[in-house]
């Protein structure tokens, strides 16, 4: 296990879930009958974290389920299967974009891909993999390459579930990543089964308004100078920066049209940063034909970002509030590591939640089963929470299932309308 860290993120809790699976959802079994437990009061500036799920007294959906089953329904009767951006998924979860960072490249990216496939959930391959590690080739070295992740996922995915989404940033466009994948024989099974999509990266939560950043050696910086800005020494390394891309409503529309025209057999996803006009951007994307729009809240992680950007961008709860009732498939990412937070974003309009840092930490803890066990715990929580709300489908949650402290019901309703 590496010394993988994530500042401000519940690393220990995630690792425990990766080790123990569903058992980590509860207090230690050894304390049963000898200890008293109560819910801790959340004290957080994260609005989504402090919000509460609020079950109703009257549960007509439970009565419907009782009649359907011929018995009282339990949490195990909750179905978590859903559709995510055109893909069938066993859970309202997807593997968020891992780019070219060393963390994702040291075998963890491929291990995460294999476990996500085994779970039957979609996977997004992040930016910069091809420019930094290469596309890979059949019969040749593939460690760290895009082909390695595609193979790992394709070898383990069950029939009819999941899908691969290949993200493209400005430097990926220069490397013609989508063209490479679309014409690669190894991607043919995904295309033939309708399980390949491309994601246009407009931005991310950890550093909205900035492009990809990573540290390289001085020798590597010299070779990259014609492609990137590599003019800022940081200790023994050099900062390599890329353009974030330039977008207006019309540019975004044209980009989506080009994706549809050039890659007609692939789905179209768009990833948005937590900008103040995120609702307008999401509307433009859906109107132009995007199959899914991912909103990466300011809580989203990154391999490398300026510390000052902890105060830049809207929190995920505010993004979802501004978007309101989504006009298409909305996906949410940013600090997703346990079922309550996932249930809240589902109630606020998201179809599914992205696992980023939590997934990498889980795989880092156990490269063979860490992510599977982690998701096992998260899925158990989701079933219990959705059942407690008197519902039995992941997409049945609504905004009335969430309460925000400090705001009367009518005020919260107005804010979220």
Automatic annotation (TrEMBL):
Limits of the Glutamate synthase domain: 197-363
A GO molecular-function annotation: glutamate synthase activity
Transmembrane parts of this sequence: none
Gene Ontology BP, a term: glutamate biosynthetic process
Domain of life the protein comes from: Bacteria
Pfam families reported for this sequence: Glu_synthase (PF01645)
InterPro entries: Aldolase_TIM, Glu_synthdom
Family to which the UniProt record says this protein belongs: Belongs to the glutamate synthase family.
Protein's name according to its UniProt entry: Glutamate synthase-related protein
């Amino acid at each position: 296990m590496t010394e993988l860290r994530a500042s401000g993120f519940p690393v220990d809790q995630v690792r425990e879930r990766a080790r123990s699976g569903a058992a980590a959802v509860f207090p230690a079994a050894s304390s049963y009958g000898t200890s008293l437990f109560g819910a801790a009061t959340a004290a957080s500036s994260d609005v989504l974290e402090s919000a509460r799920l609020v079950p109703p007294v009257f549960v007509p959906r439970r009565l419907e389920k009782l009649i359907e089953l011929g018995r009282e329904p339990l949490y195990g009767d909750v179905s978590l299967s859903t559709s995510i951006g055109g893909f069938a998924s066993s859970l309202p979860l997807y593997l968020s974009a891992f780019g070219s960072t060393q963390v994702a490249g040291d075998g963890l990216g491929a291990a995460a891909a294999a476990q996500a496939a085994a779970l039957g959930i979609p996977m997004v391959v992040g930016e910069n993999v091809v420019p930094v590690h290469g596309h890979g080739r059949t019969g040749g070295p593939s460690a760290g390459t895009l082909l390695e992740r595609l193979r790992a996922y394709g070898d383990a995915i069950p029939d009819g579930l999941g899908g691969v989404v290949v993200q493209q940033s400005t430097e990926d466009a220069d490397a013609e990543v989508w063209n490479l994948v679309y014409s690669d024989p190894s991607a043919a099974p995904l295309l033939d089964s309708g399980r390949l999509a491309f994601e246009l990266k407009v931005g991310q939560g950890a550093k909205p308004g900035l492009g990809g950043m990573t540290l390289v050696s001085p020798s590597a910086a010299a070779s990259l100078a014609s492609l990137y800005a590599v003019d800022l020494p940081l200790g023994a390394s050099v900062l390599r920066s890329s353009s974030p891309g330039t977008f207006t409503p019309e540019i975004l529309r044209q980009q989506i049209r080009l994706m549809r025209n050039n890659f007609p057999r692939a789905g179209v996803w768009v990833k948005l940063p937590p900008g103040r006009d995120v609702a307008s951007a999401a509307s433009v994307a859906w109107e132009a034909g995007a199959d899914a729009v991912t909103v990466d809240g300011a809580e989203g992680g990154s391999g490398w970002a300026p510390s000052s950007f902890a105060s830049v961008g809207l929190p995920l709860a505010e993004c979802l509030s501004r978007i309101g009732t989504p006009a298409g498939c909305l996906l949410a990412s940013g600090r997703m590591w346990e079922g309550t937070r996932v249930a809240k974003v589902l109630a606020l309009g998201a179809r599914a939640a992205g696992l980023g840092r939590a997934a990498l930490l889980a795989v880092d803890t156990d490269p063979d089963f860490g992510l599977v066990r982690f998701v096992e715990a998260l899925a158990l929580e989701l079933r219990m929470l959705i059942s407690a709300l008197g519902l039995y489908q992941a997409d049945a949650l609504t905004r009335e299932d969430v309460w925000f402290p400090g705001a009367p019901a009518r005020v919260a309703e107005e804010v979220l309308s």
